[in-house]
Write a structure and sequence with these properties.
The chain is α+β, with helices and mostly antiparallel strands. The protein contains 13 helices and 20 strands. A hairpin with a 2-residue loop joins strand 2 and strand 3 (about 50-65). The longest helix is centred in the N-terminal third of the chain and has 16 residues, at about 90-105.
């Protein structure tokens, strides 16, 4: 099979959607909504003659690390016609996507894998989590205030229902909070219309400081009622809870807890439960079906320069990066970090040897250099391992969004 891989246009929309339906079982009725929000110039198609046999998207996004937004290409919608699978179509598309993202100026790429092996073979590696967890609704309703020694009582807040008209307010709140969470996306403006939607059984609630002026939102929660229980009630799912202050965060969790009479448990996606675990009197949070996302450097030097680092870190490590799919990343490098800034420059003797995927693991902070050495993904002397861990140590990266 001779493949021609090229950027798609609006004339390919119906064929792309047909592949999406076959691969992901998207409903046919969603065609018009999908066409209204998709930009096919971010899609690559693989053609056998005139027939579209495979497709992938490389979405222009950003992702926060060390308090800064790093240009990131989000790989999505990797779909191959059933009759053409196993012929290397997906691999050709991924190779072309790496080149497309590099030409666009993306420093990093991330994706949510349906299969790990394919993406790992092209330089992506597990690099963060999209946590899913469950908590009894009544525990949120009865969420206590801060304990002794906590400093001060969280500020009082006022709650109100949100709507699509609050799109810019929740966007401003998110953009205030997101840099503090490694792995959270720098979202494109076009996403916020859907995120602010309250159609069907989807709801949006906002929190602002009591007595505050203007419409500034200090926190919000997007949630929905799903399914029906056999006896009574329904299931409750929180898609996103973002808060700039402790008072707003607790008020929003209590709002979700007010559904206890109808929803026995709440499922929460994306955000980590760490602060809630510390606030609840008992260990009632249970893990759900979490998933891991993958990442790879698109331009390793640009990625190192784009993210932030702890100001106290001062390190120099020599690397040899193996990246046959992005030859501009391949070879010997010197990693230098000082004063909160990082630089990757050519040179050195490559005392630390690793692939692109292992570099992504270190970069996001998902795991330690010691773990990567134990897994056989990094080969390094002991002092270099400690240096790498010092450079990239931070909170475990998580992602709210699934694209």
């Amino acid at each position: 099979m001779t493949l021609d891989v090229r950027v798609l246009g609006d004339e390919h929309a119906a064929d792309v959607f047909a592949l999406r339906m076959q691969a992901f079982r998207v409903p046919p009725a969603s065609l018009d909504a999908w066409r209204a929000q998709v930009d096919l110039s971010n899609f690559l198609g693989a053609f056998d003659g005139s027939r579209l046999v495979g497709v992938t998207a490389a979405l222009p996004l950003g992702q926060h690390f060390g308090g800064r937004a790093v240009p990131m290409g989000g790989v999505a919608t990797v779909a191959v016609a059933a009759e053409d699978r196993g012929r290397g179509v997906a691999g050709r598309l991924l190779g072309a996507a790496i080149g497309m993202m590099h030409d666009r100026g993306d420093a990093l790429s991330a994706l949510h894998p349906a299969t790990t092996r394919l993406y790992r073979a092209h330089g992506w590696e597990l690099a963060g989590e999209r946590p899913v967890w469950r908590v009894p609704t009544a525990a949120l309703r009865d969420l206590p205030g801060p304990g002794p020694g906590s400093g001060s009582e969280p500020e009082p807040v006022v709650l109100r229902a949100g709507s699509a008209a609050d799109r810019d307010r929740i966007r401003a709140c998110y953009e205030r909070v997101a840099p503090d969470h490694d792995g959270w996306l720098a979202r494109p403006a076009g996403w916020w219309d859907a995120l602010a939607s309250t159609d069907g059984h989807r709801y949006l609630s906002l929190a602002r400081a009591e007595g505050g002026y203007g419409g500034e939102v200090m926190g919000y929660v997007r949630y929905r009622q799903v399914g029906k229980r056999p006896d009574w009630g329904y299931r409750l799912r929180v898609d996103e809870l973002v808060a700039a202050t402790p008072g707003a965060e607790r008020a929003l969790w209590r709002l979700i807890g007010s559904y206890a009479s109808q929803a026995e448990r709440v499922t929460v996606a994306g955000c980590r439960p760490d602060r809630l675990l510390l606030a609840l009197p008992e260990q009632v949070v249970r893990a759900g079906r979490s998933s891991h996302w993958m990442a790879r450097p698109i331009d390793a030097a640009a990625a190192v320069a784009a993210r932030g680092y702890r100001p106290v870190v001062n390190a120099r490590v020599e690397l040899h990066v193996h990246d046959p799919h992005a030859p501009w990343n391949d070879g010997d490098w010197i990693l230098e970090v000082a004063g909160g800034e990082g630089r990757l420059r050519r040179g050195g003797y490559g005392s630390v040897r690793l692939g692109a995927g292992a570099l992504a693991c270190l970069y996001t902070g998902w795991t330690s250099a010691a773990n990567l050495v134990a897994a056989g993904l990094v080969h390094a002397p002991v002092d270099a391992v400690a240096g790498l861990d010092a450079v990239f140590a931070g909170s475990r990266p998580a992602m709210l969004d699934h694209f």
